[in-house]
TrEMBL record:
Source species: Oryzias melastigma (Marine medaka)
Name of the protein: Hexosyltransferase
Subcellular location: Golgi apparatus membrane
Any GO BP annotation: poly-N-acetyllactosamine biosynthetic process
Keyword Zinc-finger: no
Amino acid sequence: MMDLCLRRKRGALLKPLLSLFLVCASFLMLHRLAERHAAVCGPDCASFKKEPVRSAWWSSNSSEDSEPASNQTLAFWDAQVLNCSEDTSVRKKDWFARLDGKFHQFVLHRHCRYFPMIINHPEKCADGDVHLLMVVKSVIEQHDRREAVRKTWGREHTWDGRKIKTLFLLGTPTTGKDTNNLQKLIEFEDQIYKDILQWDFMDTFFNLTLKEVNFLKWFDIFCPRVQFVFKGDDDVFVNTHNLLELIRFKVEEHKDANLFVGDTISKAIPIRNRQSKYYIPKELYDKPYPPYVGGGGFLMSSQLARRLFVISEKLELYPIDDVFLGMCLKNLDVTPEMHPGFRTFGISRHNSSPMNREPCFYKYLIVVHRLSPQELLDMWSIVHRQELACAHRATV
């Protein structure tokens, strides 16, 4: 009996101890972020503590100073109230009863398209003409990936007169995680870097399409003078110089208006293997997919991005974001361009292949997926060494 009481007491203490551990870990991360930020920008950094976190949305009656968009009207995010109840009429459809249960919540709520913003940066595109906006899909917990991107291909700078800006797209933590502490961490991170857009929907695989359509709407509102958009994952290598050279070539050839280029996948069909992350039941979709690009990284013109926003509002959301964009392109009668420099499945599809770690391939390619944060930092350093000698242009 005494042993049982002791076990109960230990159990009762375990939960508060775990909470205390999470709080301590969070403050340690905040402290490290603050030290790193101070090292980068010096004594002027002290002012960042006084700046408020961006409010849930940016509206025309905000008290913060801002530049109006180029059309001289105050742009704002109008999805201010989260009101997403299920569409009960879907339950009455014959196919719903046969549909795999893990898709029920998706189809019951896929009419819910735009969500309130928790963190917004409408000023990101207001700083003159932005040549290239680097947009990176991420989740709150992947701070180390965002740090690696900021130090490498996501570094904001001007290259040969062409301004490059970076944004990370986030939702909220999934159920069961330490939501409050994670949110505080991301707010602190954003105060330092001011490069995060966060919406009030849960970061899940099916919700990647929400991230797509919410960004397209955001871009249409706040970025009237951006010329090109690169959109990719936070675990890819991007050769920024080669990407800019591709843009320059397309502009010179007058092939940039409907530009949408990446690692194109054609003649694909829905995967019926229930164990696959990409499994789609017949009740949800039973046709071949239109051509689409691997979501690891692709480049598009701003004109096409705006057309994609308009057409996306007319289509039902689909649980695979890459395919959904392919559906939008098909409705615009635009075929995504295949480019050998985009390797969203790796240089070789065999992960153990030495080609996947050969710097000379990275020197001449544009996008390679996938690398860990440390691998990205190491490869970036090697590729940009002047002494790196490649006998001839690497081909695969």
